[in-house]
Design goal:
alpha+beta; Jelly Rolls; Arc Repressor Mutant, subunit A; ten-stranded mixed β-sheet; globular; AraC-bd; AraC family transcriptional regulator; RmlC_Cupin_sf; transcription
């Protein structure tokens, strides 16, 4: 496992502010993968444009442009670039988080919905016009916004139990398929009853709800990376009987319809 001592120096700007924060801006092309690694610093990862997937031992998050992911220090994670991204990352020194009493609730990874205010604050940190005072004020504003309620709508929890994890990966490899729990259980060497119980205990979701979350995550990925896909096409590809049924499932997970999501990005 690679432990990155400090953020990689980037041509587009990387500096430590007086607030104890590294600022790193970098663009990544679609298809690039940042293999599992960890940092000594905590970090807030935001793609101003594009979509990425962040994977930790706990699960997978899809991170479209209206989300940002918090990754605690020394947490193993990998990043897959699903569409060309403009990544803006803030690395927080742990002594600063402790000194500023900003570490409450930041011990585990989570995804937040990026408000217009948080979006502008992050971009302002990278506009090249910062004095020490301005940078510190913007960092404090970012932290205040970050402490809003977490949004896990794009999170697909991954079970740790080997049989259950194998079943989950089968579904994730083909989220559009019609996966029956009996067939999955047979494939991983257990009973449907046991697999159902494992999904519930390992992910806090029923098997049916977990599969719905996986399908919605696949829909989010398509909507974020394919501007030409229609909601009707997507509903059919994901195995929903109708657009209203797909929209209802999508809203249940994300709080928005597929059309609203595609429009807002």
């Amino acid at each position: 496992m690679t432990v990155v001592e400090t953020p990689i120096r980037e041509v587009r700007g990387n500096h430590r502010s007086t607030a104890g924060v590294h600022l790193v801006a970098r663009d990544y092309p679609k298809g690039l993968r940042l293999d599992p690694h960890m940092h000594r610093e905590a970090q807030l990862v935001y793609a101003a444009k594009g979509t990425m997937q962040v994977t930790t031992p706990k699960g997978r998050w899809l991170v479209p442009p209206d989300r940002a992911v918090w990754v605690p220090a020394r947490l193993e994670h990998a990043i897959d670039v699903l569409a060309d991204i403009e990544m803006r990352t803030l690395y927080f020194d742990l002594p600063w988080l402790k000194r500023e009493q900003r570490n409450k609730g930041l011990a585990k990874e989570f995804v937040v919905r990026v408000s217009p205010l948080l979006h502008q604050a992050i971009l302002a940190l990278f506009d090249g016009r910062n004095t020490s005072e301005r940078t510190e004020l913007l960092v404090r504003l970012v932290m205040l916004e970050l402490h809003q309620a977490e949004d896990s709508a794009t999170f697909v929890p991954l079970p740790r139990e080997p049989r259950c994890r194998r079943a989950a990966l089968i579904v994730l490899d083909d989220p559009t398929g019609n996966h029956e729990i009996e067939a999955l259980a047979h494939a991983v060497g257990t009973s449907a009853r046991t697999l159902s119980r494992l999904f519930s205990s390992e992910t806090q979701l029923s098997f049916k709800s977990w599969c719905q979350r996986a399908r919605v995550a696949a829909a989010i990925e398509r909507l974020s990376t394919d501007a030409d896909v229609s909601v009707k096409q997507l509903a059919a590809q994901l195995g929903y009987a109708s657009v209203p049924a797909f929209s209802a499932a999508f809203r249940q997970v994300t709080g928005r319809t597929p059309t609203e999501f595609a429009r807002k990005g």
